[in-house]
Amino acid sequence: MSLKIKIHRCTNEIGGNCIEVRTKKTQIIFDFGMPLVNPDKTEFNFNKYKTLSNNELIKQKILPDIKGFYKDKHKPINAIVISHPHLDHYGFMGFIRDDIPVFIGEAANELIKISNIFTPSDVILENPLYYQHKKTFVVGDIKITPYLNDHSAFDAYSFLIEGEGKRIFYSGDFRGHGRKEFFFNELIESPPKNIDYLMMEGTNIGRTKKNKTEKAIELELSNLFKNGDKINLVYQAGQNIDRIVSVFKACQSTGKILVLDVYLAYVVSKLVEITGSNLPFPSKNFPNIRVFFSSYASKQIVESLGKEVLYKFQPYKITKDEVDRNFKNIVMVVRPSLNIHLKGLKNIDGGNLIYSLWEGYKDKGSTKLFIENLINNRKFNYYYIHTSGHADVPTMKKMIKGLNPGKIIPIHTFNKNMYQKLFNNSIVKLDDGVTFVC
Ligand SMILES: [Zn+2]
Ligand SMILES: [Zn+2]
To answer: In angstroms, what is the span from residue 70 Cα to ligand 1's centroid?
Structure first.
């Protein structure tokens, strides 16, 4: 009798998480993400493989070979547990047969549904089962306790996994400097006891920079907004809710109007509806949030959700002309697909462009074109204001100190060899696809 771990992907790379935990009776997969990189560390592009059959994808090692996972003749595995709504943790869920129970946070599932409306993909979880912070659930003879954590994705969890007398903690993706730092602190201050193995993500291992806090980002933004009479365009990930809150708060403290396009307006409104949280969203309570009806997002909303959803934002609508006229008071969250609308704004040239994403994306595709056009042709001033969605090394050390695990298993990192030097713990380095007996 023993608990086994088989990491199908993520022992030697950031992203593409797929972790199997099993007892004799029960087999569970934690996360089924799309990889971010190829084995040679170049960028992974699924479009290249789109036409291949499942069998061919398994043969080429794009999909892991797990019996009972896809539509095959085997009996289905017992469950899949998704930690958070980032593609590198759920992006391959479209391949899964639909008789496997999928456990996920409710808001996380909503964010996946929303992504599907605006960027159609095959990932629709048919009958998700919602887990909750610190509410243990049982699958076969494995017990799972989710812990809401701080991460750049909304509704992100770590898990205590118990079976065959062993206790494993899977960190998921985490940090301790965002707007949910309370949950990280709560975890390390009253941690689950007697952890045998900590599977801990190490995205930032190998990077020496200490992370700024999300609050520091808010302050940097307010300092910029306060000075000058320019429009401020903030280019950020649409579903980085912590960042939207930072931008909102910076607007509030400097008397600016925050313009969200209907896509973002829908995202925050939906999260408020589901979680009852006090996130800022277009409503009477937040009069300085206005909604820009971008054409593509409006069309997708009408087609997928109905006109009524669009009407809901009508009272807060801001027109293109109003943005152009009132540019000095406006902070607008943007992305490349909005360029078509920015084109028509005559007065905004020479404004501030705040790039608020990982710098690695900056030199690629539509992002590169979008930024270059604003800087070169429209004389925007470029600012980089961002902080990582992942823990820095001091925060990882806090997690280790709090959880006090017997051993650490490196995951979600390009530098598993550095764990030994950084942490005074026994490290178990695993390889993809190899079974480890706890
Ligand atoms: Zn990740
Ligand atoms: Zn993530």
So the answer is: 23
Q: How do the residues of the chain divide into helix, strand and coil, expressed in percent and rounded to 5?
A: 35, 25, 45
Give residue 287 CA to ligand 2 midpoint distance, Å.
32
| 198 token code pair | 């900590």
| Distance separating alpha carbons of residues 400 and 395, to the nearest angstrom | 9
Helix (H) or strand (E) holding 212: none
The burial class, CB within 10 Å (0-12 / 13-18 / 19+), for 229 is exposed
Reported as a single tens digit per residue, the pLDDT across 277-328 is 999 999 999 999 999 999 999 999 999 999 999 999 999 999 999 999 999 9
Taking the centre of ligand 2 as the mean of its atom positions, its distance from the CA of residue 317, in whole angstroms, is: 32
Ligand 1 midpoint to CA 240 (Å): 13
pTM of the model: 0.95
CA dihedral 234, 177, 17, 192 (to 10 degrees): -150
d(Cα 87, Cα 112) in Å, to the nearest integer? 9
Residue that is written with structure tokens 């998921």 in the block: 172
Minimum-distance ligand to the CA of 111? Answer: 2
Cα(102) to ligand 2 centroid in Å equals 18
Distance from residue 90's CA to the centre of ligand 2 (Å): 10
Task: Enumerate residues 6+ apart whose C-beta is below 8 A from 357.
Answer: 235, 236, 237, 367, 386
What type of residue sits at position 398?
Answer: K
What is the spatial distance between Cα 11 and Cα 39, in angstroms, rounded to a whole number? 12
pLDDT tens column, 30-56 = 999 999 999 999 999 999 999 999 999
CA distance 3 to 21: 7
CA of 153 to the centre of ligand 2 (A): 6
For the cut 90, the answer to whether the pLDDT of residue 361 exceeds it is no
How far is CA 259 from each of CA 152, 156, 252, 316, 390, rounded to the nearest angstrom?
21, 26, 12, 10, 27
Cα–ligand 1 centroid distance for 112 (angstroms): 15
Distance from the CA of 417 to the center of ligand 2, in angstroms? 22
The values of phi and psi at residue 106, to 5°, are -65, -45
Identify whether the C-beta of residue 294 lies closer than 8 Å to the C-beta of residue 262: yes
Ligand nearest to the CA of 240: 2
Tokens for 250, please give them: 């910076």
In angstroms, the CA 158 to CA 145 distance is 8
CA of 326 to the centre of ligand 1 (A): 39
Per-residue HEC secondary structure of 153-175 comes to: CCCEEEEEEEECCEEEEECCCCE
